[in-house]
Design goal:
The protein is 24% helix and 25% strand. By secondary structure, the protein is an alpha/beta fold. A 7-stranded mixed sheet has the order 1-5-4-3-2-6-7. Helix 2 packs parallel to helix 3. The mean pLDDT is 94.
């Protein structure tokens, strides 16, 4: 595990995208469904997933969107990124969603659709 941004433990199915995510514009905060056709995970729900993506993009209001997702029970259980940006890190901290930043090699090794456990205390991702 490269860097812990928000501590925690989570278990879920990986939903992985190669696209940076604009939480404000791309995610329906009521349902957690990706509503922007530009994304390779279009029409998929991030709810209860371990969301794996390069980094966030867009407005700082995206942090509030992440918090809103948690409030509507539509948030991922954890996020794994290649780069920590202020919007996603702030949103995860506000919503208490575990978040880590991993190396390119670690990112590439995470398989979409796989059930994993993320535990920041032991600093491991269990397959």
């Amino acid at each position: 595990m490269s860097k812990i941004i928000v501590q925690g433990k989570a278990q879920g199915t990986v939903l992985k995208t190669s696209n940076p995510i604009n939480f404000l514009g791309a995610v329906d905060k009521q349902t957690g469904v990706i509503r922007d056709k530009k994304y390779d995970i279009f029409e998929k729900s991030i709810k209860d997933s371990i969301l794996v993506f390069p980094h966030g993009v867009g407005s700082s209001v995206g942090a509030f969107t992440i918090y809103s997702l948690k409030s509507h029970h539509s948030a991922p259980v954890a996020m794994i990124c290649q780069k920590a940006d202020l919007t996603v890190a702030s949103g995860c901290a506000l919503a208490n969603i575990p978040m880590i930043v991993v190396s390119t090699e670690e990112f590439d090794s995470i398989q979409n659709g796989k059930e994993i456990t993320l535990d920041t205390k032991s600093e491991k991702i269990f397959n």
